[in-house]
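Re: that chain you flagged

S.,

Sorry for the slow reply, it's been a week of failed gels. I finally had a moment to sit down with the sequence you sent. For the record, here it is as I used it:
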Amino acid sequence: MIATGGSPPRHLAAGQHVVVVGGGVIGAMCAKSLVERGLRVTVVDRERFGAACSHGNCGYVCPSHVLPLCQPGAVQRTMRAMLGRNSPFAIKPRLSRRWVSWFWNFARRCNERDMLDAANGIHALLQSSMELYRAMVSAGVECEWQERGLIFVHGDRTSFEAFRDTEALVRDRFGVVATPYPGDEVLALEPALKPGLGGAWHYEGDCHLRPDVLMRSLRADLEGRGVRFVEGAAVDGFDRGGAVEASAVPLPHSMRGLPPFGFRPQQNSPP
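Prediction finished late last night. Pasting the structure tokens below so you have them in one place:
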């Protein structure tokens, strides 16, 4: 989420109709922002509002996650990790130009310059999200908000000590600070952990919430503001004079600038 002003977008007037395609947390926040600016809003989802990834996730709001995956040495570390029987990551190599192109572009961005360039944008988004989530909680949106921080646990002392350089980089460049707990000192912070670990770093500024509770609360708030929900409708195209008229539909950047149009949702058959 990015904090913005309180007036409608320049090409829209208050009272005009905007359709938000996608009923996940991003679509919900778009709808909330638009209706607060005086626009009429309809949210369309091919399944159910607040389902899928916006329901089944950890609910972290974590300024600590400022560094992207494309870090120096990421490819080598991942390849080594994949050799483990319980590796959380797997790739099925295949003769695909798109796959090779993706892998090549990812690998060549695993350098400090590109990492920090991406991190600057991520940091701005994370800080804005934290600010807006706290504002929503203060305004009464229910989500079982917890400000307990996040623990980065290390299985051995070598990896714990190696993380010092990363912590110092994030602290010095972005002001995100972690407290170290060497060895079994972390058990005082989280007794559920087993003894004999290398230690942990506690990012006290991180928070978490219940995603399902958040989405229910957002829906109730949006319905109270007159937002309409269309579920079980996959948007499979756009045409002028479609089944639902709209002054705007949030689209990728490459598709912006289109004139007002309608869309024709494809109703899914019931299970």
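What I noticed first: Residues 164 and 180 are 9 Å apart (CA to CA).

Talk soon,
D.
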